[in-house]
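Please go through the protein record below and explain what the tokens say about the fold. Record follows.
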Amino acid sequence: MPAPENWRTDPAIAGGGYFADLASHGFDLFQYLAGDIVEVTGFTARQVGQYAAEDAVTACWTFSSGALGMGCWNFVADRREDRVELIGSTGRITFAVFEDEPLRLEGEVNEVLAVPCHEHIQWHHVQAMNAHIRGDAEHPSVAIEALKTDRILDKVLLRNPRRPD
């Protein structure tokens, strides 16, 4: 369980705690894969009360394509689990956002793909941003994309009537 003095758990410093810090990366990835999220709602709680930020969050959303998504984040659970499942009519894809886990394809063809993390986790981002600044390529994650994700987080977190603003 995270220590109470961790900066990520103080809403005055980190806003939405672990959810805002970590879920933002997942939402960025989901929108990159499936398109913009056009509607979102959620619920938040401070289940353990160890710190002021939310320690449990659920959210449901709709992509511009009409696909639906849902997520559950519990930062005081008895174990750490990082799993995303994309479930379709002919199979599913399972992967982790942060953990160095294989990507699993299940359906007509079942496959497990090892996608190792780079030694320096931000390497590809730095390379892509460098190319973007030089005008050699368009970076897929620029400020407007971050703003879309920030609005999603705000809608989930600010929906909670018990949240002090």
